[in-house]
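agent: user wants the structure for TauD/TfdA family dioxygenase from Amycolatopsis iheyensis. delegating to structure tool.
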Amino acid sequence: MTAATSGASLGQLEGNEHTRVAVYPATDLAWVEAHLPQLQAQLRDHGAILLRGLPVDLDLFNRVTETIGGALLTYTERSTPRSAVAGNIYTSTEYPPAESIPMHNENSYSASWPARLFFLCDTAAETGGATPIADSRALYQLLPDDLRERFAGGVTYTRAFREGLGLTWQEAFQTEDRAVVEDYCARNGQTFEWTEDGLRTRHLRPSFVEEPHTGDTVWFNQANLFHVSSLGEEVSEALLELYPEADLPRNAYFADGSPIPVADLERIREVYDEVSYAFPWQAGDIMVINNMLMAHGREPFTGKRRILVAMT
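agent: tool returned. relaying tokens verbatim.
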């Protein structure tokens, strides 16, 4: 642990040579307000802060979130199951405890995304359950040149919504009105097709972008998460036996629609493993990340775990 470069008298940096989080001994909302310039600078320049020492308090979490990030956003164009807790505070993705959630930048598959993510540890897992983070600049820099070139045109995301397999279109778009979905797709560069089972969508997004404050290029996509291979060989093979490729809940392709080699995705996952950093949660912890500078995921866990999420 070394002194933080921003607000050195207040916080300490934890992490590895690629990814670091500045840990601050917060006491209450007044402390956050008094040290807001240092916290904001750390988020802008380095990407992650951890406020440690606060009580588990939903109202306090909401007020800390608004103080640092402004008004909370609703979770739109959903790709994973979550539950609303209060207002625009949600549970983290509700996947089985034994599963990992791959590293990703929130909503990087969408035309718009949150600038800041806020995580509150309500209940720490008995074992595991960390929320690892990974510096998106380091990931871009460490990926092989030829792989970056193959991804230069962007990532094409495909989704098929149906009852009983992944999210329905009503859950994903938070509406029962097909016209609302069609308008959303039209405004956000998505093609759509209504089917007997539900809905198919398709859209192209960048693979990497320039982060506006630092000017650095960041790896910013969810190809590794959307691609069917992220489900593991056994599950992906079973799905492909049951459904045509166009009806998979999620998948990812190169910009021209050609398949992404699994070897490329494995290399991306390997580099994520190389650069990521995880710490054990403590009840009351609030981690804030710059969504463009830091990707995040979830490790498997045992026991009860409850992490709440807000976006601004």
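agent: one observation worth passing along. The chain is about 25% helix and 30% strand.
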